[in-house]
Specification:
Blueprint: E1 8-24, E2 27-38, H1 41-53, H2 67-89
Antiparallel strand pairs: 1-2
Amino acid sequence: MIKDNNGVIKNQDVWGKKKLAYPIDKQEFAVYVAFELDLPGAAVAKISNGLNINKEILRYLLVKEDERIKAARAEAGSETKEEVSETDEQ
């Protein structure tokens, strides 16, 4: 569904099977998975509609990453690369 809408999965974190705080559709347990995606703006609605239709997905949340956080992550990543380069040079 993600790739069909020109999206890219950047990171996938499977938390595993957890007990729900309250039953949802008579289910007491669910498998939690977190994805970090790059999606074009038009794809968000299509993916949301697809997730709503899928009966295996009890709940989902799509969140747009704050641009300030994105910039801070990029800056932190470049600093880490610079530190590794300086260590290699010594």
